[in-house]
Amino acid sequence: MELYTGLQKLTIKNSGLRSIQPRAFAKNPHLRYINLSSNRLTTLSWQLFQTLSLRELRLEQNFFNCSCDIRWMQLWQEQGEARLNSQNLYCINADGSQLPLFRMNISQCDLPEISVSHVNLTVREGDNAVITCNGSGSPLPDVDWMVTGLQSINTHQTNLNWTNVHAINLTLVNVTSEDNGFTLTCIAENVVGMSNASVALTVYYPPRVVSLEEPELRLEHCIEFVVRGNPPPTLNWLHNGQPLRESKIIHVEYYQEGEISEGCLLFNKPTHYNNGNYTLIAKNPLGTANQTINGHFLKEPFPESTDNFILIDEVSPTPPITVTHKPEEDTFGVSIAVGLAAFACVLLVVLFIMINKYGRRSKFGMKGPVAVISGEEDSASPLHHINHGITTPSSLDAGPDTVVIGMTRIPVIENPQYFRQGHNCHKPDTCFREIMLNPISLPGHSKPLNHGIYVEDVNVYFSKGRHGF
Predict the structure, then answer these.
(1) Cβ atoms of residues 213 and 223 within 8 Å
(2) Which of 70, 76, 115, 272 would be 298's cystine partner, CB 3.0–4.6 Å?
(3) Lowest-confidence region among 158-162, 168-172, 336-340, 413-417
């Protein structure tokens, strides 16, 4: 049957089968249905089906002998195992008569009983321990410890104390932490079946930092760690030798599964201030363990030189503030820019003042404070500006509201009513400038004149009594 490891259903009927070896199905763990009915089987061992998870076992119409060897069938039928309770099973007595299986009565034929010296065994790492398992029953069972995978095993010692008890000692030497949580199992077997008992092994040992990784960026920066210890250790962190306090930026997340603590020291957007050595300290009543790694998150700003820095005393938790001196070239350039801006502002202010003070034109349309009426015969107009290059003593003393005719100063008075009238200045014939003169005396005239002078283009006219004069 070793070739059919995936076999799930097996039927052997009417074949005259007389016996089957106890480990015939050891290589067929997937068997769920076996039909051995209508054969010539006289006995059958429960060990044949020990490793299987049978849903149905058919054993009808066989010639089983009524003996202790088939007591297990009677127990399975009572318990409804493998649907044996739905079958009519018989056995043959010594006198050759058939007897229903459920009526078979065999004395001194029962499942073995088992007991152990410890239900829970607690030791410290490096200690020794002895555990005893007792198996009793009739027939006398075989007793043994299942220690596959146990690291601390040293010896098995079998002791037969009396006829119906089989005892065995298990000695553990220099117990290691690798065996913490191991389940020690003692089994007792006879032809009727098997019984077992378990012992939970607990090993106390100091903490150990199994691993401590450098920061790795995941959703957040993570310093991953794995710590073992029993009892479970408490965890603390140091940053550059100082206790690390958890905050919104730095916090620890881990889960505890038995003796193993696994998790991360998490950083939410760390800066260069978080660079440094991080030490994990694990402590329990049996000892302390620690391990250090260097965490580097960001480069320091201006790492090449610190000559241009003035460090301000650090006030926790605010990081240190640095003041950087700007190079002289930058200062000189800034000074030039500021000077040019100031000069431009001053120049604009001076121009504004000059325009307000000297830029106003007279209502007469003449530049300068003094107008001169010249008596030259070759001039087309007797009224000229004093600024024709002729400078006289009287012209230097002339006021802002005088007209000079010849060498005589004439005060000028404006008539504001004239300027209120609507004149069309687009036509040169109708655009006049009117000047009110105080009474003046001219050569050849005996009375002072009180006339208005009208200027049209460059000609001067005298008109009496016009425009309110």
Answers:
(1) yes
(2) 272
(3) 413-417
Contact of 87 with 73, CB cutoff 8 Å: no
Q: Where are the alpha helices (DSSP H) in 94-209?
A: none
Strand pairing report for 56-58 and 33-35: parallel
- 179 or 329, which is more confident: 179
Give the β-pairing of 90-92 and 64-65.
parallel
Please tell me what DSSP assigns to residue 246.
P
Residue 208: CB atoms within 10 Å: 16
Q: Is pLDDT above 80 for 280?
A: yes
Q: Distance (Å, rounded) from C-alpha 86 to C-alpha 76?
A: 11
DSSP 175: -
Q: pTM of this prediction? A: 0.57
Q: What percent of the chain has pLDDT over 70?
A: 68
Query: In this structure, are residues 278 and 292 in contact, taking their beta carbons and an 8 Å threshold?
Result: yes
* 297: DSSP letter: -
Amino acid at 325: H
What tokens does 65 get? Answer: 């002998």
Among candidates 375, 196, 208, which has minimal Cα distance to 287?
Answer: 208
Domains of the chain in start order, with CATH, are 9-103 (3.80.10.10), 113-203 (2.60.40.10), 370-463 (no CATH)
- Read off the pLDDT of each residue in 335-360 and give the average, rounded to a whole number: 85
Q: What length is written for the chain?
A: 469
Question: Which residues contact residue 149 at a Cβ distance below 8 angstroms, ignoring those fewer than 6 apart?
Answer: 182
* Secondary structure element (H or E) that encloses residue 355, with its range: helix 328-358
